[in-house]
UniProtKB/TrEMBL annotation:
Membrane-spanning parts: 6-23, 30-48, 54-77
Subcellular location per the Swiss-Prot or TrEMBL entry: Cell membrane
Organism: Macrococcus equipercicus
Protein name, UniProt field: GlsB/YeaQ/YmgE family stress response membrane protein
GO cellular component, one term: plasma membrane
InterPro entries, sorted: Transgly_assoc
Its membrane topology: Multi-pass membrane protein
Alphabetized UniProt keyword annotations: Cell membrane, Membrane, Transmembrane, Transmembrane helix
Annotated family: Belongs to the UPF0410 family.
Chief location category: membrane
Pfam families: Transgly_assoc
């Protein structure tokens, strides 16, 4: 049950971060989950564990990490698109 809740939380974090950034995450719902999980790990690594926690995921570091991840991926995709 913990894995399912973690995937749901990753999807929610990815979706919220995409709304804040105003850009779609490539891959749709699966992309949201992947971005949320990687972003949560990145945020936890960079910022530690502080703020409110739901299902073991600290919301603020996860959200900040996911926003950072989306920004980096968007920059890379824009650079690759310009080369064509």
């Amino acid at each position: 049950m913990g894995l399912i809740l973690t995937l749901i939380m990753g999807g929610l974090i990815g979706w919220i971060a995409g709304m804040i950034m105003g850009t779609d995450i490539p891959g749709g719902k699966i992309g949201n989950i992947i971005a949320g999980l990687i972003g949560a790990s990145l945020g936890g690594f960079l910022l530690g564990s502080w703020g409110p926690s739901i299902w073991g995921v600290h919301i603020l570091p996860a959200l900040i990490g996911t926003i950072l991840l989306i920004a980096i991926v968007s920059i890379i995709l824009n650079m690759m698109h310009r080369r064509r």
